[in-house]
Design goal:
This protein has about 525 residues and is α+β, with helices and mostly antiparallel strands. It has helices spanning about 15-25, 25-35, 45-55, 65-70, 75-80, 90-100, 105-120, 200-215, 230-235, 250-260, 295-325, 330-345, 375-385, 405-410, 415-425, 440-470, 485-490, 510-520, 525; strands at about 5-10, 125-135, 175-180, 190-195, 220-225, 240-245, 265, 270-280, 285-295, 345-360, 365-375, 390-395, 475, 480, 495-500, 505-510. The protein has 19 helices and 16 strands.
Length: about 525
């Protein structure tokens, strides 16, 4: 008799589904949005399906969901009786609209609290950063939104518009993503979507205040220099922060330039040294850490030398031009020389001499000569400031936040950048932001954040278990490591199939290597790689 055989690709999706189950995402969504007994597929199942698609690492937009699940064991992952064609764009769209109307902020708050409690996430430091996501299409502005303040009126949806593009695509409209992660495993505890022209300086304080209010936890907020304005620092009150001081502040430049080499101490972080100073800025007592990076100093000095060369060449060319192309009007020439001199940063023209001659038409014409002199003080200041940057905190107790921790945590700000790189990967959902409704885009930002949350928790789970046991696995280069990326583990798990023969389920390709890897994940994940 012809055997009835069905083969579906499970691959790494059991790990993803297990983390979703352990975190209780499906139940959380269903509790928030409610369930309808008449519908076989709940909103929680749809959200689980979106996360599985998002972490499936295939470049398929949401309207291809049935195709994505066509070769996956959908009943094994989502529940008995669920068919791929039932997870369609209409159903997904309705759930996305319901999520938005319920409150994405409330959902994130619940998720963050669940995550912190279940996984015992340390929250001493919270890293905040933003990035832009470019989109194609017109995205016409809703006239009701123009002139209104998004922060004061929650009913307003985000505006897809032009702004400063981190993607270097100023020709495209965009929206913003604000990400808050814990330093413990880079776990995202907040993802917020904002208008494309939103300013970090204006929005960061309100994000921090809302985060504090919703989660009610003690943390030190780590950000880039966008937070450091007098208005922002005063508005935050007693909230603890660690941020970079912009060199646009005269005081910052002076302190960085005057810091004496002999007063720097070596950092545990190779290639860095620092010195600490108490500072009172705008009535706020702070600790400033002047940091010098050896690698950055070499780079800054190289760039400075290049700028000096280019500016000098520019001056020599202009002096030659004034000799060859003489002016009919002396005052016009003097004005041109004056404006040129004012445009220079590192040099200036001195000993200017204007000469009068007659041209071929016997007209009086004027030329200019001069000597090139360095602006020694400016060059010296930039040389002394090379490789240096300043960190500031209002945590005055060095036992609570040492100088070494200040540097370490600021450098850990890269955790946000890694999160944004993950979300913007061409194989992730952001590859095709196809929804033309700004509310849907805002909801998609939330779902992208949840995908990152699940991924980060899986990677943290794996690494912590390896380190706890003192064991290692091989990375993509064949070298043993206790800090593998979860993406690589997902690659190792490719080729696992759920095979059904005459109604009996079997798992194929569960090699010894894969079985060894699965033991580092929770029972929720392991259950997807077992069949009765």
């Amino acid at each position: 008799m012809k055997q009835e055989i069905e083969v579906k690709n499970l691959d790494h999706l059991g790990i993803v589904a297990g983390i979703i189950d352990e975190l209780g995402i499906e139940d959380l969504v269903n509790q928030a949005l409610g369930t309808d007994k008449r519908e076989k597929i709940s909103a929680g199942i749809i959200v689980k399906a979106i996360i599985l698609n998002g972490l499936g690492f295939v470049a398929k937009p949401l309207y291809l969901f049935p195709q994505f699940f066509a070769d996956k064991p959908i009943e094994h992952l989502l529940g008995e009786g669920i068919k791929a064609e039932e997870i369609n764009d209409d159903k997904i769209g309705r759930v996305m609209d319901d999520l938005y109307e319920y409150s994405l902020e409330s959902l994130w708050t619940s998720l963050a609290i669940n995550t912190i409690n279940k996984y015992e996430i340390k929250t001493k430091y919270s890293h905040l950063d933003s990035s832009s996501v470019s989109v194609h299409g017109e995205y016409k502005i809703n006239p009701k939104q123009e002139g209104e303040n998004l922060e004061e009126n929650r009913e307003n949806v985000i505006e897809i518009t032009y702004g400063y593009s981190r993607d270097k695509r100023p020709d495209l409209k965009q929206f913003m993503l604000d990400l808050m992660v814990s330093s413990d495993g880079d776990v995202p505890l907040l993802m917020r979507t904002g208008s494309g022209n939103e300013s970090d300086k204006n929005i960061f304080p309100s994000i921090i205040k809302a985060y504090e209010k919703n989660l009610n936890l003690s943390t030190i907020y780590v950000t880039d220099s966008a937070l450091y304005t007098a208005k922002n620092l005063h508005s935050l009150g007693g909230t603890k922060w660690l941020t970079r001081v912009p060199f646009s502040l005269k005081k910052a430049k002076e302190i960085a330039e005057k810091a004496k080499e002999a007063e720097f101490q070596s950092s545990e972080k190779k290639g860095y040294k620092y010195q600490e100073k108490p500072v009172n800025y705008q009535g706020i007592k702070q600790r400033w850490l002047i940091v010098e990076s050896a690698a950055r100093k070499d780079s800054d000095l190289e760039q400075l030398a290049d700028k000096l060369t280019k500016e000098r060449e520019k001056m020599e060319k202009q002096l030659k031009n004034w000799q060859q192309r003489k002016k009919l009007d002396l005052n016009e020439l003097k004005l041109e020389v004056k404006k040129f001199n004012e445009s220079l940063k590192y040099y200036q023209l001195e000993e200017l001499k204007y000469q009068e001659n007659l041209n071929n038409k016997k007209e009086k014409v004027y030329s200019c000569q001069g000597t090139i002199e360095e602006k020694a003080e400016i060059i010296k200041a930039e040389t002394e400031r090379a490789g240096r940057f300043i960190l500031a905190t209002n945590v005055l107790d060095s036992e609570q936040l040492s100088a070494a921790e200040m540097l370490h945590e600021y450098k850990a700000q890269q955790s946000c950048e890694r999160g944004f790189r993950f979300i913007k990967d061409p194989l992730f959902l952001a590859d095709t932001v196809f929804v033309k409704n700004p509310k849907r885009i805002e909801t998609m930002g939330f779902l992208m954040g949840v995908c990152l949350l699940v991924y980060s928790l899986g990677q943290r789970m794996l690494r912590r278990e390896l380190q706890k046991r003192g064991e290692k696995v091989k990375n993509q280069l064949g070298k043993a490591t206790d800090k593998p990326t979860l993406r690589w583990i997902f690659q190792v798990l490719q080729g696992i199939h759920l095979v059904r023969i005459h109604g009996q389920s079997h798992l194929s390709n569960l090699t010894e290597e894969i079985l060894d890897i699965l033991q580092y994940f929770s029972i929720y994940c392991q259950n997807y790689y077992r069949v009765s």
